[in-house]
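Suppose you are handed only these lines of text.
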Amino acid sequence: MTLRAPVRRYSDAFLAFALGVEVVCAALGGRRWYRARHLAPARLALRRERVVVPDLPDGLAGLRLAQLSDLHAGRYLGRGDLRAAVDAVNAFEPDVVALTGDFVSHHWSDALALVDDLARLAPRRACVAVFGNHDYRDRAEGRIAEAFAAAGVRVLRDECLRVDTGAGVLALVGLEDLEEAKRVDLDAARADVQPGDVEVVLCHHPAGGPRLARPGCALVLSGHTHGVQVDLPFLRRFGPAHPGLRLTHGATTQLVSRGVGVVGLPLRVGAPAEVVLVELAREGAA
Ligand SMILES: [Fe+2]
Ligand SMILES: [Fe+2]
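From them, the structure of the protein bound to fe (ii) ion can be written out as follows.
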């Protein structure tokens, strides 16, 4: 089964205007401003989510996943700017770190500035990632995957990584982006998921959530919307539709991260940069 989301296209004039805004804001110190205002330890939001999973094996109760999304390396975020986010993730002592795409804003090579920070992530079991729509801009996303692999981050491209804890198996399924990938093959991505696995899907675009839900799929982790980023009435229509931070599709929970980085303006209003810290719980547990 293929999975797509409608592609949003902006006019050339709008894109040129947005790029001009970025260039000017960056020249005025936008990156330094954004780091101090939104990425400093006291500013970064730590969003804690408890997800109840039907029939969760005893051994997976309390399992921890940390999510970082929408880093958007480029004019507003670069080398060293993820220090507080990485420290927060490591302090949570996660079993799994999930990176849900949009590593860059414009050019694949900007992702190289993230490698040192990402290499400091220290999950107990696995660090996995998927691409977001921005990561396909140069059609060189494979080079991002190579650089991340050297930092211990595995990019899942319509594939599954099964993590056997000895007391249960977590099936981490990663999808290509629903807007910009040439192909999204959900069947291939799920081919290695076994009955009894606890499935967690990484899908950058939140529109995939309802179609990914199924028994055994505990969680879908998404990003893309930046939680609206600048949540003011006259600016809302410029960004992607934001369905909410936490959605339920039958037995499947979907978490939509507000992300860490920004596009357009080095500013967030009503949508703090965040690290999402998830704990799995058994049904009926206190
Ligand atoms: Fe994004
Ligand atoms: Fe995106």
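What can we learn from it? Residues 12-27 form the longest helix (16 residues). The chain has a mean pLDDT of 95.
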